[in-house]
Design goal:
Largest sheet: 8 strands, antiparallel
Order of helices and strands: EHEHEHEEEHEEHHHEEEEHEEHEE
Number of strands: 16
Structural class: alpha+beta
Strand content: 25-35%
Radius of gyration: 22 Å
């Protein structure tokens, strides 16, 4: 179990952003960043401390990584606001990432640098973690305890479903689901791809799975029957098995004829360059569209993710 610490404005509003993601075990509301011991909600809200409202995210690194949590965090806030977040103003509502190790610090700095390419400014403070003070019980899982009040708060605060941050958060959530499926396929080593050949199912082993430009890709050659079948009928199913869990992915596989997409795939699998080249007229990559992935086992209920 690992822990990550994010100050994203009102902790009521930021909690469900993380809680819904596979691999996140728990999300606690609290205070972090200041030197004052045992701060109260009233003192933090009134700016009488140097603490910020913060969430502590407990997560399973095998299912979701720290960079994915950073993306989820930055996609849920207004990174250009240095005076607070949405309706909540003051230092205690400003943005911060509290890092517990050098690896986290480097990842956070990389994320901020990437955001700087598309934003006029990025107001996220990266600070070493000191201590987390758990907030009063009434603040824990507020969105579950007071769903109607929470919905009103979300809309009035500017964090509603139509705000830009929520739109970014939805896309990032989709990417996280995609990364989970991609990681499973890679860890399995070999998966099986089923296509339609004029009404006859055809199944063959595959080994490529790669995310590029926000999409999940596989690779093959135009000379192969699988390519011809996918061009005729893009509907396909992928199945993989690993550690007692099997994955069934139902989707459409759509060709991406961009040079950059082919190159990205071969860069991810350099061993394929003995047979393929992005300029050879044969190398072909397909991305998954309209995806429904089901994780199943004999010991737990099936889990479905869609994007």
């Amino acid at each position: 179990m690992k822990y990550a610490y994010f100050a994203g404005g009102c902790f009521w509003c930021i909690t469900p952003v993380f809680a819904a993601e596979p691999g996140v075990v728990s999300v606690e509301s609290g205070y972090c960043g200041g030197d004052e011991p045992d701060p109260s909600y009233e003192d933090v809200k009134a700016q009488r401390t140097r603490h910020r409202e913060t969430v502590r995210v407990a997560y399973d690194e095998a299912l979701i990584g720290y960079p994915a949590l950073l993306d989820l965090f930055t996609g849920s806030v207004d990174v250009e606001d240095g005076e607070g977040q949405f309706i909540d103003r003051g230092r205690s509502y400003t943005l911060a990432v509290y890092t517990t190790c050098e690896e986290e610090r480097i990842a956070a700095e990389r994320t901020v640098a990437e955001l700087g390419r598309t934003h006029s400014r990025v107001c996220i403070s990266i600070e070493p973690y000191k201590k987390f003070y758990r907030a009063e019980e009434r603040h824990q899982d507020y969105y579950k305890k007071e769903p109607e009040k929470f919905a009103e708060e979300l809309i009035s605060s500017g964090r509603g479903a139509l705000c830009p941050a929520a739109k970014r958060r939805k896309r990032i959530s989709e990417v996280i689901k995609m990364e989970r499926v991609c990681r499973f396929l890679k860890d399995a080593g070999v998966y099986y791809l089923a296509t339609d050949d004029n009404g006859q199912p055809r199944v063959r082993p595959f080994g490529t799975a790669h995310i590029y430009d926000g999409r999940l890709y596989i690779q093959t050659g135009k000379k192969k029957d699988v390519s011809k079948q996918l061009h005729k009928n893009p509907k396909a199913e992928i199945c993989a098995f690993k550690d007692g869990v099997w994955l069934r992915l139902c989707c459409e596989l759509i060709e991406d004829d961009r040079y950059e997409a082919r190159k990205s795939m071969l860069d991810a699998y350099p061993e394929l360059r003995s047979m393929y080249d992005e300029n050879d007229g044969n190398t072909e990559v397909f991305y998954c569209r309209g995806c429904k992935a089901v994780f199943s086992s004999f010991t737990s209920a099936p889990e479905t993710v869609e994007w």
